[in-house]
Amino acid sequence: MSLLRSRIIPLSIVTLSLIGCGAIETNMPVENTASNAALEQSNAPTDNPASYALWQAEQQATPELAAPYYLHAAELLVIDQQSVKAQQILEDHVNEVRFPGQFSGLLLYGRVMASLNTPIPALTALGEASRLPVADQPKNQIALLETRALVMASLDNWPNVVRDRVRLSTMVPPEKQEENQTELWSAIQNLTDNEIGYLESSDLPLLSGWLQISRILRNQNLTVDQQLQAFSLWRGRNSSHPASANPPLDFKIMASLDEQLPTSFAVLLPMSKELETASQAILNGMLQQYYATTGERPKVHVIDTDKFENFEDAYQTALDSDAEIIIGPLRKQNVARLPGLITDTPTIALNQLDITRVTDNLYHFSLNVDDDIKELMSFSKLEGAKYAAILSTQDTWALRQSDQFQRLAEEQNVPVLETISYEDTPLGRQRAIKSLLQIDESEARIRAITQWTGQSIETTSRARQDLDYIYYAGKLDNAKQIRPLVDFYFADQIPMLASQTLHDGQPSRNTKNEDIERIVFTEIPVLSNGSETSNTPYVLQRLTALGNDSYLIASRLPLFINVNLAKVSAKTGIITLNEEGIFNRRPNIVTYKRGNLVDAKEEYLKESETR
Length: 611
Hints:
This protein is an alpha/beta fold. The protein contains 28 helices and 15 strands. Helix 4 runs antiparallel to helix 5. The chain is globular.
């Protein structure tokens, strides 16, 4: 059974039939002299090229003659960033018409739908394009692969992007090699470690070499200089590989960063009061990374912010230590004060405000649930899911997380059909699930029919059919009470999605496997890969990983600043720096299967291979 609803058509069914994708060529018909003369005498609009192309289309006698003009109008609208209008024109006048430019029209439609965050119609169009006779032409095979790679990237389906880009590397002309290689490297750096392991069994030419150099950058125990040395050795053994002749930008920039790498850090943490345990876990992670790195290490100054009457004095102490980078603070109220204190010394705050003010030299890195929710939304789209509902306990943190999902759903154009919080009692759970699945409405209809006919009706209440998944905000012990209720009302194919806050410990021994399966949630790699410490609470292990990665980010900060969209695979996920100075994470997506924690994306990839 698919991890998301099996009645949703999986994208893999479409994508596996595709060859690939790419550039759109303009298919404007050549008008004859008589037609031109007639048009010149008309009242054709001349102030807007797209309007003129639409007017030309309307003058044609048949849909086949009009289609090239409609296609040209759509191309112009895309250039003018009017994608919704272009979509409507392509759907109404191009996609279903047999004419010489239909292939280009379907590819343009695929790009438009990907830009509108609706990838299923995009992949369907590419599937239709791949079945046209002209798809066998070499230039059209390239066009298909390029377009599909773009659509897959919009889905964050990086393994398929990598496959497509590797195939393209042996097909595209010399003038497009560098662009394709840049896109290929970016996709490889977006892979999780599990996805890299999955792709290592592929027999695609050149792919093994790309994965090897990615692993060099993923080795957190190497200094920048050691990574450069490892890459130099790799180039000596793989002189014919494209990455040897034209190294990825990361390595080029790293070779020039020796003088920019920090030699002194200051760490601001509340080490004495209520956050002492959390701070100690973060510091332990920093020290683990510090001692794991060989070679010359920077100086580290640890400053206890609890020892100061006001945060400004603590921050000034960090500046007086001559630190080149400051890591911290942790408390939100102290993070809020940073914009007025920042100088030329880069500061990486370990928390994030709901509204972040962009400030030079100020960065934020935290275990923000927004990153988890975005990754879950991308995964659900990969499986063809669209409509969501939110179910949360009435804990303050859970209600706040429910609001976060609602906000991000609006940003990502994910329809939320229902939002419910419930009292965690047997009756509260039952009422919530019946309301969420609209069982109450089904029962009311049955009662109405019985009353109207005067006869007993032998039927069973059924769950709604328009819901693809439930986003759940609660703990695992709460969720294992909800999952059986969802199944009881014949909605067993509706999965539950959750952030890492669900996973607060190993399932108890009396937990039934079926009560926690079909719950898909995020987790940091260090916990999802089975390397957890059994006697340490998961929340503290995550904070230790946060400390580890904050040290890693600080030591690599010049790389993030100088390489646009640089990526580092770390213990909390794949880390990138956005334009607002926020370090985002891509966590792993996991689920339970027969009582064991497994990578949900890998399960999806295995399923797609057998479909």
